[in-house]
Amino acid sequence: MKKISTLFAAALMAVAAGSAHAANYTLRMGGGHTTGTTYVKVFDTFFVDEVAKRVKAQTGHNIRFIKAWGGSVAKVDGGIEAVQKGSLDIVLSPIGFEQARAGLLNYSAYLPFTSDDPVLQQKVATRMLKEVPALQASMKPYNAHILAQMVTEAYSVATTFEIQRVEDLKGKRIAMTGTNAPLFMPTGAVPVTLGIGDHYQAIQNGLAEGSLFWVSGMEAFKLREVAKVWTKTGFGSYSTLAAFMNMDTRAKLPKEVVTIIDQVADEATVRIAQESKQRDADIEARIATQGVKVNTLSAQERSKWAQLVKDLPAKAAKELDAKGQPATQVMKTYVRYLEDAGFKFPTDYPL
């Protein structure tokens, strides 16, 4: 009996000791997009909840998140700077707006007409981040650690006019991020560089006649009210979303807490890919019943468009290579990993 009492007392002392060493941590997390986008929504809910729950259960520590979505702390083009300066501990960034700092991470956007399947793309993106050290190394000058590279929903075009042939784009003004402009310029279209939050008004007032984005934008940003044609171009789902974490913050946190954050971030990417794929299908079906005409660009027209831009990947790669970033090798690796996953581009991009 005495032995049992001694063991019980020891257990109580261990619990008390653990409680005494429990600490409270607060992380500031934000980004330029709102929770209307799939990737922000998953981090706003699943990531936050799971990290807090697992940290408490596995370490006894408490962790809470202060959220700053919709550009309240960092705009879409200022996420990396916010992490570098410590204004945010974790930021979610659409890296198409961060070309100067995160150009190498934008590798998938340089190779258009890739797979439309977000789940396949996420498998490749995860493999790239784990097996291509240059990606992580490219962010060290900005005091940023890449928690995850995440995939977008499939990119296509919402317009006020129909696109049956590539030639239908000639002279048309399309709102998009600046890094996507070279994809449209050879068609004769006129890129209008704007964040997605400004696309509705631009189309409404005639500044633009279309929007390059995901089909979720038809609902989340109400584009279906001003653009009545959705054309599935086959541009693909890109791994152009990233979660960055301040490296000083990582160093200050207990290792076991950092491990949990990394694990949940990986799991979040899988959820984002799965939800993006389902969201594409669901929203496309809904808008088709709401007065939006859904078209699919033919394989012949996609191939024609791909031929028009076949030299863009090599050009982008050489520009980054000249800055000391191994972009050519990164892009070649990306193409090879996609082929390993069963995808073939509609044209061979010379790299």
What is the mean predicted local confidence, pLDDT? 93
Number of helices: 14
Terminus-to-terminus distance: 76 Å
The CATH class name of the largest domain reads: Alpha Beta
Indicate the proportion of strand residues: 15-25%
> How many domains, as an integer?
2
Q: Mind summarizing the main beta sheet?
A: 6 strands, mixed
Oligomer description: single chain
Molecular structure report:
- The protein has 2 domains: 171 residues, 3-Layer(aba) Sandwich (D-Maltodextrin-Binding Protein, domain 2); 141 residues, D-Maltodextrin-Binding Protein, domain 2.
- The chain has 14 helices and 11 strands.
- The N terminus is likely disordered.
- Helix content is 46%, strand content 18%.
- The chain is of the alpha/beta class and 351 residues long.
- α7 links the parallel β6 and β7.
- α5 packs antiparallel against α11.
- It is globular and about 65 Å long.
Itemize the secondary structure elements and their pairings.
Layout: H1 2-21, E1 24-31, H2 38-59, E2 62-68, H3 79-85, E3 90-94, H4 99-102, H5 118-131, H6 133-137, E4 144-150, E5 155-159, E6 173-176, H7 181-184, E7 190-193, H8 199-204, E8 210-214, H9 217-220, E9 229-236, E10 241-246, H10 247-252, H11 255-288, E11 293-296, H12 299-308, H13 312-321, H14 327-340
Parallel strand pairs: 1-2, 1-3, 6-7, 6-8, 9-11
Antiparallel strand pairs: 3-10, 4-10, 5-8, 5-9
